[in-house]
Each structure stands twice: as C-alpha cells, then as structure tokens.
Amino acid sequence: MSEYARRMAFLSARIFGQVVKGTSYRNEKIVKQLAIKPVHKEHDEVNYYPPYMKIDLAFENLRYHGLFRDEHQDFKEEMIRLRALRGKVKPKKGEGKRAMKRKAAGS
Predict the structure, then answer these.
(1) Which in 44, 49, 52, 63 has the greatest CB count within 10 A?
(2) Is the Cβ–Cβ distance between 34 and 27 less than 8 Å?
(3) Nearest to 30 by CA among 40, 42, 13, 17
(4) pLDDT (tens digit, 9 = 90+) per residue, 40-82?
(5) Is 77 exposed, middle or buried (0-12, 13-18, 19+ CB in 10 A)?
(6) Domain segments of the chain: what residues?
(7) Mean pLDDT, rounded, for 23-46
(8) Distance from C-alpha of 94 to C-alpha of 24, rounded to nearest angstrom
(9) What is the pTM of this model?
C-alpha cells in the first residue's frame, strides 16, 4: 500500500466516522458505544410505562359526562357528603370558633 493510499484511507476513516486501522480493542469498543443510539431516544425505554396521567384524566372526563362509573370515587364522595350531614367537615376560613366569638363580641 502506497503512502498516498494509506493517507487517503486514514482521512476517509476520519471523515466517515470509521475506526482507523491499527487502533486498540479499547478504542474500537468506545467507538461502538458512542455509535449506538442514546438511551433517552430509544422507543422502548421512553415508553416503558403507559401514560397513566392521560388515562386518569380521560376517565375523569368520561365520569363527568356520565359515560363511566367509578365506584370508588362515588364511595369517597358519599362519605364526604355523610360527614357534612353529621357536621364533621372543617369550617371554611372565617367560620371557625374563634371567628364566631370575635363576631359575637364585636356585634
């Protein structure tokens, strides 16, 4: 191989991102690692978990329109309603005991 051909092969390898002949095994390994697609751009890595937040929002909208029945949410709302009937809910700001005393004393 002539000097010119060797030099052209070297430049070609540099331009097109190929490993130059005569490099060590470690350098070839590093070049292979850098040549693969990054993990954050892999389809399987990025979409490993389903989009739960979007699914929950969709079910919430369906429930609002009466097209989906969420029995657990119905139960929670019923418990809140029953607590309100028994007077067990927290008062709103300005409607507590101290505020009522202050209003009674001020009036």
Answers:
(1) 63
(2) no
(3) 17
(4) 888 887 788 888 999 999 999 999 999 999 999 999 999 999 9
(5) exposed
(6) 3-47, 49-89
(7) 79
(8) 77
(9) 0.48
